[in-house]
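Assess the record.
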Amino acid sequence: MANPDLIDIGSNLTHPTFDADRDEVIDRATAAGVVAQIISGADLAGSQQGAQLALTRPGVLWSTAGVHPHYASHLHDAQEAAFKELLAQPQVVAVGECGLDYFRSFSPREAQLNAFVKQLEWAIEVQKPIFLHQREAHADFVDLLRDYAPRLRRGVAHCFTEGPRELEDYLQLGFSIGITGWICDERRGQRVREAIAGIPAGRLMIETDSPYLLPRDLDPRPRSRRNEPKFLPHIARTIAAARRETFEQVAAFTTANALEFFDLRRGVAAESTGW
């Protein structure tokens, strides 16, 4: 029996570690049942590359356009027109990855806040979903989003790694939740496992964040330690076990959620996908 269709809502396919075998990585994912991927944008150049890559596989690849908080200090006013041009393209389905990251603070907090506000305003203007990143900045993140959430079309907390209390805040804001292979980590994933049953089925989506966050419980473990979208079914099975649901159930509702959230049925060459 063929695996159910899955959608990876966050893969970093433009990352240099995929340069030597990117087409093969996509093909391996498709063979594993990952029928679509959304390529995360982290800065202007990466967002442009992601949008171009998405055009090479219409109906399979889409992308986002935005500035990760690590690169917030690189965002300047002269780039705004280029981002708006990207966000007008149909294969670019969300604003981001954007938000706050106080864990590493590669950009000053003031620059992160300014870049985040700018991208929230873009999302409201273009009426596309926002793809959110937060690490060790929950209070500031939620305080800011409370002002913008009523005007945002949709939002997803990408790579959720926290627990029930933080989850409740995001759900109250109306956001969806993206779960990665972090849940497969026997130590670091404990808080996510505690929260996973509290995510309504209609708000849950899945992602690999590849090449990062290789699931720690893969057996055999890849020698390269590089994560790939082909491992998304493994993440889905772990989620299913933690929620006491079947793999087929998790595949069905997470795929339906991604199609609706990112408007993929109306995307490039949607008529060719059977959706």
Confidence is low (pLDDT under 50) at residues 268-273. The first strand starts at residue 6 and ends at 11.
